[in-house]
Amino acid sequence: MSEPNVNLTQMPVRPGPVIPRRTALLLVDVQQGFDDPRWGSRNNPEAESRMAQLLEAWRARGLPVIHVQHCSTDPDSPLRPDLPGAALKEATGPRPGELVIQKWVNSAFIQTPLEAHLVRQGISALVVVGLTTDHCISSTVRMAGNLGFTVFVVSDATATFDRSGLDGCWYPAEDIHQIHLASLHGEFCTVLSCADVLAGLGGDPLLSTGSSMFSDLPGTPFQVPPP
After folding, report:
1. Angle made by CA atoms 225, 226, 227, in degrees to the nearest 5
2. Mean pLDDT by 10 residues, the chain (227 residues)
3. 52 is in which domain, residue-wise?
4. For residue 105, what is the domain's CATH number?
5. How far apart are CA 212 and CA 118, in angstroms?
6. Distances (CA, A) of 10 to 103, 154, 194, 195
7. Which of 196, 202, 154 has the alpha carbon at shortest distance from 30?
8. pTM higher than 0.70, yes or no?
9. How far apart are CA 185 and CA 199, in angstroms?
10. Beta strands in 109-172 (DSSP E)
């Protein structure tokens, strides 16, 4: 008897795992260039609204926020740093004091100061949102997990686009999204909904206690080699 399909984007709110209190919100490639029609059809049209909700909650609690900006070297990309599309979207853009990491490849850890910054700040866990699920989200999450960070991906605050396969088949964005979340979940990260995370933060913006899934315990320290 086959197992029922589970949609990770529409998972019910449930008690979540313990997340260290000093967990950073990592917003990956939330850029204007992804509104360009050349990308095709996208899933999760409300993803940016969910990102904004999480961003507001993180800021209200004084939790660390990190923005990642993709600076494409592809001459045909709308995410080239000299084009307007490279700009971070206003609704989820950085405020003064929030770190912006620029990258040139899919993973936010390659040739960037992200890992060193997290270690220096004592941040051992990440809540990851942004674009796109199967490219930069997946690459960043896989590497973060391999580096020893605790990672949570927010299913309804990430999204991707339709893609054509090598066999000529057209794969809908939602199918690609769900398959990549299923591949990441349990191996590199824990997949949660936005509602899960917001419920876990607790009601008091300045103090999350009681049944919250956020823990006061410090995260596991990380070490990086000296420069």
Report:
1. 115
2. 51 55 94 94 97 96 96 94 95 96 97 97 96 98 97 98 94 97 97 91 46 38 29
3. 27-72+87-211
4. 3.40.50.850
5. 23
6. 31, 11, 10, 10
7. 154
8. yes
9. 20
10. 125-131, 150-159, 163-164, 170-171
